[in-house]
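Lab notebook page, bench 4
Experiment: in silico fold of construct C2
Operator: M.H.
Input chain length: 392 residues
Purpose: comparison with the prior construct
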Amino acid sequence: MKDKNSDKWFNHAIIYQILIDRFAGYDPTKDWEKPEFIGGNIKGIIDKLSYLKNLGVNTLWISPFYKTSAYHGYHITDFYDIDPHFGTKKELKRLIDLCHQNNMHIIADFVPNHVSRLHPFFQKAISEKNSPYKNWFYFTKWPDQYHCFLSVNELPKLNLKNPETRNHIINAAKYWLSFGLDGYRLDHVIGPSNSFWKQFTQEIKKEYSNTWLIGEAWMQGIQWNELKTIQIPWKRLKWLRNRPSDSVLQNYISFLDGVLDFTAQQLFQYHICQQNGSQKQLKKGLQHHYKKFPSNFCLPLFLDNHDMDRVLFQCGNQIHKLKKAAEIQFSINQPIIIYYGTEQSITQKKSVWSTTHHGDLLARKPMPWQDSRKNNELYDFYRNLIKRRKNR
């Protein structure tokens, strides 16, 4: 947790979330509805910094750029290298430096819970009976059965109780902070144990005291048989509650600087997007929610992200509902997150939950640069919201 004298830039963050492969520099002839690289890259983000600065955002959040076997970056094959699809270390450093020169901060996704099945350490663990890497994973019956990220066999879960594994991950986080990153959005924080997060935070803060660490603590969609893969305390009780549970978010008050506010997101979705909605009821729900957290624990407020339906779709493609939600979002004293393309009216034809195979692609449409001049209404709306927020 931050103390009162620490760097407070994140409290005033207006964050723009970028999925690197789908944002800029991509090949428009590629089929984005397939789970494949279409070519978005770090250089593309650099080329669009003037657009982002003009919009008024002051913080970028970029998806995982590490070597990977998947276009979205979450299937990591090397924590210490950049995937050539996304660019080079030199380009990453250039992006970070340009953000700072433009009075912007930049955070990145970090994924400590699991790796791609194609990670060389896992490949050695399943091919060599006496491999030292066997203890880096949770084999229940070597070599074919092991714990993974929920039920995704392509993502074997790392054994972070093993000191070598733990050091590998923590040192990787430090390595990229040495490039100048300002913080991390930590993926699937319910996967590793509290003891891991305690050590992770202590070691990071010792060397990078102004780094912000924000967790993704989300249990929606998890099946009972997948609970064995997560290590949040009282996980079965939390699961049985079967609703957005502040207790999941509260678990990280002692270890992290904040968590993404899934409770608030679902309140917005219910009261504004799906119903004709009562702002009064929304504000009452939010007030009750915020009382459960200390004032120095950040709850970044988002309306959607890369794993759920886009907010315009949630609002039945009614712009006035989206505007109402955004106005309330910007009135709340928490960091604000805008998912890329919301300001360009990106929506979708059906829900990500309507299919069992790669439904999330529906919420990961490429940024419509070719149409961006035609969609000035929402862009100008967000630009003015941001301006007012900064001047209040």
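Observations: DSSP finds 14 helices and 13 strands in the chain. Residues 9-105+164-391 form a domain with the TIM Barrel fold (CATH 3.20.20.80).
Next step: discuss at group meeting.
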